[in-house]
Design a protein that fits this description.
This is TetR/AcrR family transcriptional regulator. Residues 34-53 bind DNA. The chain has 9 helices and no strands. The chain starts with 5 loop residues before the first helix and ends in a 6-residue tail after the last helix. The protein has helices at 6-27, 35-42, 46-53, 56-81, 85-99, 103-117, 124-142, 151-171, 175-191. The chain is mainly alpha-helical and 197 residues long.
Length: 197
């Protein structure tokens, strides 16, 4: 019987722990998740969790990174379907706001994430988002679609608006209404960036 390569075994162990944590964090939340139950569900030990992620908080960060990567793929697909770059940018931002209605994203990314990991602006994924948004806005500015403004400043303002809207939706008594109102207001804000003929 052949042995699996070490890197494959490490990847499989990490994937099992992330999958079990994602299921637990998404259903009962971070605080109520028992490390013993989580590792048992993954068929592993607490030692494996500590070895790969340091602690429960490190595991949460890994789960959020996985969810964020999936969200990014979905947002890129939304943007790619658009008829033009401006519409793609707008649709991508609106889709992010709408994702705040999804229970797993609400609980793990928008509620437990900030409560446990602190301000989302300090998360590595946020830096990547700002970089990508700055690039998109720079191209739109250079093409004469939006006003001649600093793209990073605009990216930070837009990212802040979408993140706060998403957190509002995640905590609102009526998330659907908050989402609809957020998108309507956001469209009005974005329209102010456009160069008028």
């Amino acid at each position: 019987m052949s042995r699996r390569p070490r890197q494959q075994m490490i990847a499989e162990t990490r994937a099992k722990l992330i999958e079990a944590a994602r299921a637990a964090f998404g259903t009962v939340g971070y605080a109520a998740t028992s490390m013993d139950e989580l590792t048992a569900a993954a068929g592993l030990t607490r030692g494996a969790l500590y070895h790969h992620f340091g602690d429960k908080k490190g595991l949460l960060a890994a789960v959020i990174a996985e969810i964020d990567a999936e969200m990014n793929e979905r947002l890129n697909a939304v943007s790619a379907r658009a008829a033009d770059p401006w519409t793609g940018f707008r649709d991508e931002c609106a889709a992010y706001i709408e994702m705040a209605l999804e229970p797993e994203i609400q609980r793990i990314v928008l509620r437990d994430g900030p409560a446990v990991l602190g301000d989302p602006w300090t998360w590595p994924t946020q830096s990547a988002c700002i970089t990508s948004m700055t690039d998109s806005l720079g191209k739109l500015r250079d093409a004469g679609v939006i006003l001649a403004i600093d793209p990073e400043a605009a990216a930070r303002l837009i990212a802040g608006a979408t993140l706060h809207a998403a957190q509002w939706i995640a905590h609102a008594p009526d998330g659907r209404a908050a989402s609809q109102n957020s998108i309507a207001a956001f469209d009005a804000l974005l329209a102010g960036l456009l160069v008028r003929p």
